[in-house]
């Protein structure tokens, strides 16, 4: 029996964002494929085997939502977006700068009318995951938010004369994608989104204006992109969104509390849950939660960092959950890492054992808080 939004159990009290550190065997196989030493099918076999192991590890730690760890991706966003109709990836001149380090050079651009079709590789990826997860847990699919194309991609002006035209095709493509995942058996989708971080600081707002937009107007467009993309989702499909400030090799991209976009994020988005970063002072306090205006919105507190190995003090985490509960009911709160452990294939600076220690820590705390 499927779980409806009325009796849902996800997002779970102990949940996670989705990506996990790539095993060394998988890293070697990907390098061998790039060098022409193994075939695509040989790589796929190794991916399958490592994902099967990962599924069992997630179950053993007590997680209820299970992902494929994004093991088939190089990036958390480009791999999905490049496989949309009308979008292509390319090697850019520079990468993104993260607090003193820089990513590999990569970007995307819109070269034709944007659409989604049934040969998108992520559908097969999900079907494999679903088969491994079984009926006793929930297979969770993470994909980049439509805002990652709307705001971050280069756009050919001859293809789209204005952003409104692109918005229409983009949200239609996402509606098709969401329905396709649903038809494949998915009941839990997470949209990953770094665009909101630009609204949370003066530096971010300056970068928005440099692109020719006013922050308030772009915020409205980003809200529409989310709400229109998920408007026709089936009643028993849960859609959450992860708002991220950057996560690359244990470095961050931006800072800022949720205040500047709090009314939109907490009162204007039609998602079922929000995964939010609260692992350090860069994210501000819990006061913006006062703008939550629905009793069915769940907020997943990212109080445990995925960037470093040291385990957070349990009592301090519980105190922070209690503080958040001053603005939103315990029933509507959950716990997770602030982000994934490997938003790109390089991964954060901790070991696999330390990664699983973090997950077990979250599960134990959640059991003690929401027993």
TrEMBL record:
Which parts pass through the membrane?
A: none
Q: Spell out the NCBIfam families in the cross-references.
A: PRK06520.1
SUPFAM superfamilies annotated for this entry? UROD/MetE-like
Species classification: Bacteria, Bacillati, Bacillota, Bacilli, Bacillales
* Alphabetical list of InterPro entries matching this protein: Met_Synth_C/arc, UROD/MetE-like_sf
Residue ranges of domain Cobalamin-independent methionine synthase MetE C-terminal/archaeal in the record: 16-345
Name of the featured protein: Methionine synthase II (Cobalamin-independent)
Pfam families with a match to the protein in the record: Meth_synt_2
């Amino acid at each position: 029996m499927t779980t409806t939004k009325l009796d849902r159990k996800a997002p779970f009290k102990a949940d996670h964002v989705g990506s996990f550190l790539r095993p060394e065997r998988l890293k070697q196989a990907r390098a061998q494929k790039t060098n022409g030493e193994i075939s695509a099918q040989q790589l796929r076999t190794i991916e399958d085997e490592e994902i099967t192991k990962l599924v069992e590890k997630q179950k053993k730690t007590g997680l209820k939502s299970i992902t494929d760890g994004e093991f088939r991706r190089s990036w958390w966003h480009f791999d999905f977006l490049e496989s949309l109709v009308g979008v292509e990836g390319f090697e850019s001149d520079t990468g993104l700068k993260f607090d003193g380090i820089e990513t590999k050079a990569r970007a995307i651009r819109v070269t034709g009318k944007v659409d989604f079709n049934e040969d998108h590789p992520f559908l097969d990826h999900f079907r494999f995951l679903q088969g491994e997860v079984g009926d006793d847990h929930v297979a969770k699919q993470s994909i980049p938010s439509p805002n990652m194309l709307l705001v971050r991609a280069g756009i050919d002006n001859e293809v789209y004369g204005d952003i409104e035209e692109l918005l229409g095709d983009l949200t239609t493509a996402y509606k098709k994608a969401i329905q396709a995942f649903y038809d494949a058996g998915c009941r839990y989708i997470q949209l990953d989104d770094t665009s909101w971080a630009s609204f949370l600081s003066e530096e971010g707002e300056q970068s928005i204006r440099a692109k020719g937009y006013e922050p308030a107007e772009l915020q409205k467009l980003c809200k529409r992109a989310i709400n229109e993309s998920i408007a026709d989702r089936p009643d028993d499909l849960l859609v959450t969104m992860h708002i991220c400030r950057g996560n690359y090799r244990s470095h961050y991209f931006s800072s800022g509390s949720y205040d500047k976009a709090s009314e939109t994020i907490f009162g204007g988005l039609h998602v079922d849950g929000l995964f939010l970063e609260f692992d350090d002072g860069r994210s501000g306090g819990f006061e913006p939660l006062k703008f939550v205006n629905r009793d069915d919105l769940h907020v997943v507190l990212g109080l445990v960092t995925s960037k470093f190995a040291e385990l957070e003090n349990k009592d301090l985490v519980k105190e922070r959950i209690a503080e958040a509960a001053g603005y939103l009911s315990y029933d509507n709160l959950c716990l997770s890492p602030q982000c994934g452990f490997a938003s790109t294939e390089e991964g954060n600076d901790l070991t696999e054992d330390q990664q699983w220690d973090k997950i077990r820590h979250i599960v134990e705390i959640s059991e003690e808080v929401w027993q």
